[in-house]
Amino acid sequence: MDLTPRPGATPPHPGGHVPQVHSHPYPRPETPAETTTRLRPVRTRHPARAAAAAACVVLGLGLIGGAATGSWLTSDSSADGDARNSYATARTAWHNAPVDTLFPRTLKGDGAGPGGADRVWTRMAVAPDGGCTTALDPLLLKTLRPVGCERLLRATYRDATSSSVTTVGMIFTEGDTEAMRALSTRFSDQHLDARTDLMPRTYAVEDTVAAGFGDRQRASWTVHVLTEVPVVVFAVSGFADGRAVTDPQPAEKALAADATTAAAQAGLGHEAKGIADRIERGLRRTVTDLSENQQ
Q1: N or C: which end of the chain has fewer CB within 10 A?
Q2: For residue range 40-51, what is the model confidence (pLDDT) as tens digits?
Q3: Domain extent at residue 158
């Protein structure tokens, strides 16, 4: 990435917690047709005509079958090819797209705050791109192992009042479509995105309101495994004053109207979700643009 101007387990966070086929009635037995219907006599056909007719039928069926098979093969091949091209393009987007495109200096969140309030987030710093070993908790790293880690990009934003800070990241994986879909299904079925021991780590920025943004300051988070591109997008938010949070809450729960945690009442679930969503949308647009430019 060009930075020039241009996984259960014991929760590591105090107070954290780890968290059809319908049967159909048997069908009625079929009644042999010959017990209810008299077979009609069949005329004797001329051998030559019969042979010619049979040949036409075989030829016709062959053409139809070949056309259909070709269509299926072409369709599947085209879809697979598009998926492979999209994955190949996305996998290199971390160094083919400008940093300001991947992590805009300013993000506008119209209606992204509590009660539909507008939000504006300002980027404070972008972390040097690198691997996942030191930037992710061991358990999260283990969970992502089936898809591998090609590159990790992170940036930290603050809200307009400088009362909250959020680190957003993109993990560019080595997985193919099947592997990413399997990981997405696992996250969904096992609710891995709601486990406190799988929270992403923060990126603290010295000499800013995010200087004290560490593991104990994590208040709300979101993790989304994409399947149309080989990327995992995450975001984790906290208070800008550096206070420790003993009851972090996943963004989806913090967004609930009846949520009463400090993170929820401060709108930190909205911060994490809002920023992650916009970075994700931007990535999709970037991959589309890169793909079109390569054609």
Answers
A1: C
A2: 333 444 555 555
A3: 92-294
